[in-house]
Amino acid sequence: MAAQASTSCALSAAGSLPLTGDFPAESVVASPNHDNSYIRRIPSFWSDSLRDNDITSNAVELYATLIHSIEDNPLTFRPVVLLSLAPLPVEPFVPMQELKSVLLKPCSSFIANIRTINELHIMTYHLWRYITSKADGLGGALRHTRYFIAPLVDGFSFTEGSGFPNLLNDISWVEMLYVRQRRATLDESIVDTLRIVPDVLLQIDHLLVVREASLNLFDMPVDAGYLRSALAPRLRDHNLLARLGSSICQYMITVFVFGTHQEADTALLDQLRGHLTSKDRLFQQAEALDLPPYIFKGVGPLDFYPAGPVRTRSRDHRHGTRQFSRQTIINCVYGLVAAAYLSRTALGDVHKLARKFGAYLPAIHDWKSTFRQWGIFEIGEQAPLAEGAQFILSFHVTVRKGLLLDHAFREHSIGWSGCRDRYKWLGRPVLEILSTEFVIERYPDLSTDAASTLVESMLSDATLAALCVVQTFHTFVERFDEEIIEQINNYAQIAVLARGFEALLSEFMGRLESQYWSPIIMPFPQLLADLVPAIAGALVASDDFQLDSVRTFFRQALLPFYVDYYPGGIVDTHLTAELMGHVLGRGCRQFDWGPLPEHPNEAGFYTAHVRFHGVLFHSEEGRTKNAAVELCAYNALQRLREDPLLIGPLCQCI
């Protein structure tokens, strides 16, 4: 088998994986059983890429990103390979350096033609079929086996990447091996079942949610009913169905789903989240969820209390002071990701999971308001901002319609009798509260009608959550940055002249790494700047939040945040806001906009520029800063309208 393969030496170690037969490029129909049929379709971006973006119109280069653990312990973390049309950013908007147990590593690329894509469809179906028929009696052999996402097929070859060894040196491809002789019948297929983990194929199905970056090659997941009927009786010991959302791949979905584009399969995302919110007991039992600890090593609200805030002892604990570590503040940002990731709607389940991992969250009565507007909601008095952020993020906000307001404010979700329904808990209609107490108070120049229009655009779940989080960190910056920044800057004046500046700075701030808080480049945490695009991306991903509303929300709520706190500022023009809306709609987190210094050769001229991930996208000159910005925004926006996909390759976010 391996000797018969006509591929590179990389494949000769794993075996050839040829499949016979000519399969149509549009779809492959497979029947897992008599009553459950589903269609595997090649995503449109595949056919578009093969037709438009490749010189030969016959092959496309795939890039592999290896996700593995530093300890490389298969009992706690199984390596995963993600495939993409372009290299994935090594750092999503959540800084991966903070995830001490997870690494992203670019690997060698390989070539896949249209036949290879079809063979991936067929091969995956046969793997499903074989596992469901042969899983009985395998015991624990399936549970602790390392696995990966990328299945091997005939028709591709590895190329050595600069500075990176062949991917086979990092992952054993034979751990998921489907071998088929040429011209062999279906019954002669050979699958090494003892080396296959059933979760693998679940991950392949669900990775499509990672926008165009995913190459799982399917538009539709296996029907949930079929999973329950076919797999649950055989694999109940593995908590397979209950752990659908507990893999590192699910975390990657959360990272990239904020940038879901219009052509993405939103029904798939709904179905995916439906797995976690189904009334089926397999999905609802918190004890059976069995979330792996590595998910919460630096990610999510469940890590708050072990990492940071410690209440000083006092006779009246409500008046005790709290000390917040650097990790706690960073986790407030991570919590936004974990909130969408977990999709847990009941606060009682949150507390159970927190206790399971050694985190003891306070009772609902101990939560305090995050900013002054929360006082209207009758939560309580002011409290440290980091704790308030935990309160918001502990709701496990999702980016889909109907979950935050329908679950977070219900009695059984909050756990106290004052929450009969969300409106009674708020004390008055949401629209009136936000219009009078938030919008008009914060933006007094807006008319009442304008404020109402703005608030109406904020009533989606994702928008309300984003509003709370933005105000939380906005207030945090206003109240807490002065003392911290003063300490950093004072120390920086001494340390900048010494060797080992980064080490000294980290030691001084409690091992605070300089890539998060830069005392020289910007006067506030970079994470706060990264948070706002993430929120805006979540708004775009919300199915009931239209582009006009995104523009309005950005201009009136998010843009002032940037103007005040983003290095260099952003000129408040309608074209700039519209351009930013397009950019954030693509899920890009690094956006640099602003006027450059005066033209060196001609006084009175300014150059405005748009950069994505540090790469210059467009520049224009003008006699004033505003003129340069206006012209640059207009022409850059025209480029995006003519070819919106330009942002993707430029930002490496596709």
- Class by alpha and beta content: alpha+beta
Oligomer: single chain
What value does the Rg take, in angstroms? 26 Å
Overall form = globular
Low-confidence stretches: 1-62, 66-86, 88-351, 353-431, 453-551, 561-573
Quote the average pLDDT.
Answer: 38
Number of strands: 13
Strand coverage percent: 5-15%
Individual helix count:
25
Helix content: 40-55%
Largest sheet: 4 strands, antiparallel
Q: Distance between the terminal alpha carbons, to the nearest Å?
A: 36 Å
Report on the structure:
Strand 12 (606-612) and strand 13 form a beta hairpin. Among the domains are: 9-276, no CATH class; 568-654, 2-Layer Sandwich (Double Stranded RNA Binding Domain), CATH 3.30.160. The chain has helices at residues 9-12, 44-53, 114-134, 199-206, 224-230, 232-235, 248-257, 266-277, 281-284, 304-307, 326-342, 347-356, 385-393, 404-408, 411-414, 422-426, 430-442, 448-456, 461-495, 501-508, 526-541, 547-565, 574-585, 625-642, 647-651; strands spanning 27-30, 38-41, 59-68, 80-84, 103-106, 110-113, 178-179, 190-191, 310-311, 322-323, 591-595, 606-612, 615-622. The protein is an alpha+beta fold. The longest helix has 35 residues, at 461-495. Helices cover 41% and strands 9% of the residues. It has 25 helices and 13 strands. The strands form five sheets. Strands 3, 4, 5 and 6 form a four-stranded antiparallel sheet that branches. Helix 21 packs antiparallel against helix 22 (547-565). It comes from Botryobasidium botryosum (strain FD-172 SS1). One of its GO terms (molecular function) is ribonuclease III activity. Residues 236-345, 388-544 form the RNase III domain.
